[in-house]
Amino acid sequence: xxxxxxxxxxxxxxxxxxxxxxxxxxxxxxxxxxxxxxxxxxxxxxxxxxxxxxxxxxxxxxxxxxxxxxxxxxxxxxxxxxxxxxxxxxxxxxxxxxxxxxxxxxxxxxxxxxxxxxxxxxxxxxxxxxxxxxxxxxxxxxxxxxxxxxxxxxxxxxxxxxxxxxxxxxxxxxxxxxxxxxxxxxxxxxxxxxxxxxxxxxxxxxxxxxxxxxxxxxxxxxxxxxxxxxxxxxxxxxxxxxxxxxxxxxxxxxxxxxxxxxxxxxxxxxxxxxxxxxxxxxxxxxxxxxxxxxxxxxxxxxxxxxxxxxxxxxxxxxxxxxxxxxxxxxxxxxxxxxxxxxxxxxxxxxxxxxxxxxxxxxxxxxxxxxxxxxxxxxxxxxxxxxxxxxxxxxxxxxxxxxxxxxxxxxxxxxxxxxxxxxxxxxxxxxxxxxxxxx
Length: 438
What we know:
single chain, Amino acid/polyamine transporter I, mainly alpha, disordered N terminus
């Protein structure tokens, strides 16, 4: 069992999992007891892992790509957001199922079943992806603090990083406390965009037309790839399996099936909320900024504040700040899972935080365009998706890995493989367009 998993086996954490005052890691009897307490108690005890993953799907990178897409192309790229969200639902469910069925997370299974060189290669690229992820989160939090309070960007980056580190420290007191904090921040983001949507009321016909697939040149393709990179996040593909692997230890296959079935609800609800937030971002940007030539996060904040109301600007800024802090803490935790799983090594959390935040602080200190940096970071993330997705599909399709009756159905593997091919093809085409200049 992983070191991270061992840390979760504390008395306080066990009470959190059981949710009924009992002490001890849930057993078959505990699971039956949860059911006897009623559906609400059962639901509250089991749900939450997908919501931690969902925060990564509404991080500041999403703000940047969705704002840019809405401002430059109106509602045209809404179909990309919808498609990416549907991909995310399937991918995160497979990751959650893997943790429950095997008791292992994706990086651990890669280490067990792939050659050593492959495993180390996957680890190296995952660490690069972690830096790109943290760049988006820290820069986003810095922008939010600058917009809300006038804090210099570099100082805002340091403040955001410190707050995220404190939030991550809650895991040492039980994962339920950490999840509750993350869900609370996700609630702030959702509330902000619900307010924006009702206040602005995007054009209904424009929204509907945006779900018809189309592109308008290389720049729109760049944004489409960035949207996918911002929505389907490589690090939470790894993380979700770790969140479910020891959450409740099933005693038999029947309990495994019950827990996996529950994940369909958990993932569907969490990813559905994330999808609504992402589509709202793009639609609001299209309604307020479409045709203005302003396609930055700062421009969206000013546009909402000046053209709609100060409260609209405040809601946007608070949502961005909550997004950056929550997603940064989740990203750092994912980095620990990745290193421990792939190469069976760990480093102090403070050192990991310092390493992954360094590129973001360089960007802020150098005065580079923060919104453009966010968009580019999401494209980098998109290139990392296949390295997490392909191993996930390969391993969840294997009966000898997942166990009898838990391997993917053939149709599931076909759909997941189709998604992987689309993402890889988009990235290759983008490279071709970029280097040929056509």
